[in-house]
Specification:
The complex is a heterodimer of chains A (about 300) and B (about 170).
Chain A (H helix, E strand, L loop, with lengths): L1 H23 L19 E7 L2 E2 L14 E2 H13 L4 E8 L4 H17 L3 E11 L1 H6 L4 E4 L4 E3 L11 H7 L23 H26 L3 H4 L7 E3 H6 L5 E2 L2 H11 L8 E3 L5 H5 L10 H8 L10
Parallel strand pairs in A: 1-4, 1-10, 2-3, 4-5, 5-6, 5-7, 6-9
Antiparallel strand pairs in A: 7-8
Helix pairs in contact in A: 2-3, 3-6
Chain B lengths: L1 H9 L9 H23 L3 H32 L6 H11 L6 H10 L1 H27 L3 H32 L1
Classes of the chains: A alpha/beta (about 300), B mainly alpha (about 170).
Chain lengths: ~300, ~170
């Protein structure tokens, strides 16, 4: 019995020693991977801007949506990175755009970081970084795109449909009781009137001007240089580099090297993913994502939003 | 606890006394070792190890409770006669070989193929011991013990779906 105890004790100790060795002797984490907040002080904050950019309520849990980028959450992450005194922020952008206000809110927060701290910001464009996605990227000191990334689409669009001919065929009459003549502006149940068009055009023009001003401020190019490129057209990464909408070509690792260079980080930078799902989100998917067709419904939702930077 | 470890590793056929008090120790010890392994795999610091250890121990205890309950229920449906505390103790004891994953992972650094093979072997070993313990505690035939284990795993996989769909069904259906 004594021998059994001793042998079992030796095995148990050997296992513990091996486990401690597995922990301490583990090779350093590859960069561009979600490092834990417990993994020491971060040099570079990784922030993800994926999918539609929208301004929605913050919060997590099983009943919250996880699709797209929530501007409020991203702003919180930027502030946390700033609080943690990171040397640089690396934005991973793969977004077709989103609402004007949400994109602008993220842009403003990043510009505040640029102006008030020495933190360097680099944007790495993925498959697509168009419209609102590019709006956010323009706040970076340096933009890296893949040669085949799709970017640009600088412009503002308000889309409306008139379904009244269809309703007429079906014998459906629609009416509204409203406090003012423009309360049902963009109503899909009638043709848009001339005064309404003027109002919407003014909103679009103003929003577009804000977009242009933001790019001019962020990229350091003149309005005259930008305006010919800002007619809504899209560019590949290579084309965008030629017209100075992006600074260099490469992948995420190129962007990280550039980030380290700009932030003067010696050796391998410690990267922390501030957008990584928390423990709760890792274990439990959002409730909506379990519903078949939810993603399509989310996409369709955007068609109802009157002001979008890209559709 | 040391006797339980010894008999599980070297004499699995000789059934040790099913002591629930020993089983608690298994989880504390195993949770710590697995947390260290996982922390090394994902590059966590000391705080990360602590968080993982607490999470693993809690998750282990919760999983142990549900798995034992499911095994007991299904074993009884299949004609088993074991008690729930006996099942809980037997299941915890069956997991002792998981401790050896630590040396197996360490081995991967020098001999990756052997390390992988060892990890696989430990996994198979745990499955065999689990089934054997279910058979022993509930006095089932090998066939029924395997069926009980497979059904329990299937049930465990489907249970979260049921738990998620229940509120949905009740809210929408009533």
């Amino acid at each position: 019995m004594r021998f059994e105890r001793i042998l079992a004790l030796v095995i148990a100790i050997a296992c513990v020693v091996a486990a401690v060795g597995n922990w301490i002797g583990a090779p350093p984490q590859q960069v561009i991977s979600p490092a834990s907040p417990a993994g020491g002080k971060a040099d570079v904050a990784l922030l993800e801007v994926y999918g539609q950019i929208a301004d929605s309520a913050t919060g997590g849990g099983p009943f919250s949506s996880t699709t797209g980028t929530n501007a409020n959450t991203l702003i919180q992450q930027i502030r946390q990175a700033r609080k943690d005194d990171v040397k640089a922020i690396l934005l991973l952008i793969n977004s077709p755009g989103g609402t004007a206000a949400a994109s602008q809110a993220i842009y403003d927060e990043l510009m505040r970081v640029r102006k008030e701290t020495n933190t360097k910001i680099v944007a790495a464009l993925g498959d697509v970084a168009a419209s609102g996605g590019y709006f956010v990227a323009s706040a970076a000191h340096h933009i890296v795109a893949n040669p085949a990334s799709v970017t640009g689409s600088i412009g503002v669009i308000v889309r409306t449909q008139n379904v009244s001919p269809l309703l007429d065929r079906l014998g459906v009459k629609s009416s509204s009781i409203q406090s003012g003549p423009y309360k049902d502006i963009l109503s899909p149940f009638r043709e848009t009137t001339s005064p309404e068009r003027e109002i919407i055009q003014a909103v679009v023009t103003e929003s577009y001007q804000q977009f242009l001003n933001a790019i001019v401020a962020g990229r350091g190019i003149s309005l005259a240089q930008l305006r010919p490129l800002a007619d809504g057209r899209i560019f590949t990464g290579s084309q965008a580099q030629k017209v100075k909408l992006v600074d260099s070509l490469g992948n995420v690792h190129t962007a990280l090297d550039k980030t380290a260079e700009l932030a003067k980080i010696q050796g391998e930078p410690n990267v922390r993913n501030y957008s990584a799902a928390n423990l709760w989100q890792s274990f439990f998917p959002s409730f909506e994502s379990l519903i078949p067709g939810y993603q399509q419904v989310q996409q369709a939702r955007w068609h109802k939003i009157p002001l979008a930077l890209m559709e | 606890m040391l006797e339980a470890l010894y008999s599980t590793l070297f004499h699995p056929n000789e059934a040790s006394e099913d002591q629930l008090s020993t089983a608690w120790g298994v989880w504390l010890f195993l949770g710590g070792v697995l947390a260290l392994n996982a922390a090394g795999a994902i590059g966590l610091g000391a705080k990360g190890v602590l968080v993982l250890a607490v999470a693993f121990i809690l998750a282990g205890l919760l999983g142990w409770f549900w798995f034992s309950a499911a095994v007991s229920l299904l074993a009884h449906l299949l004609g088993g006669q074991g008690s729930i505390p006996g099942t809980m103790a037997a299941i915890a004891q069956s997991l002792w070989p998981l401790l050896l994953t630590a040396p197996a992972i360490a081995l991967k650094a020098w001999l990756p193929a052997l390390g992988e093979l060892s990890s696989l072997g430990i996994g198979v070993w745990v499955l065999v011991i689990l089934t054997r313990q279910i058979r022993r505690v509930h006095r089932l035939s090998w066939g029924r013990a395997v069926l009980c284990f497979v059904l329990t795993v299937g049930l465990a996989v489907l249970a979260p779906l049921g738990l998620l769909l229940w509120p949905f069904m009740i809210i929408l259906g009533t």
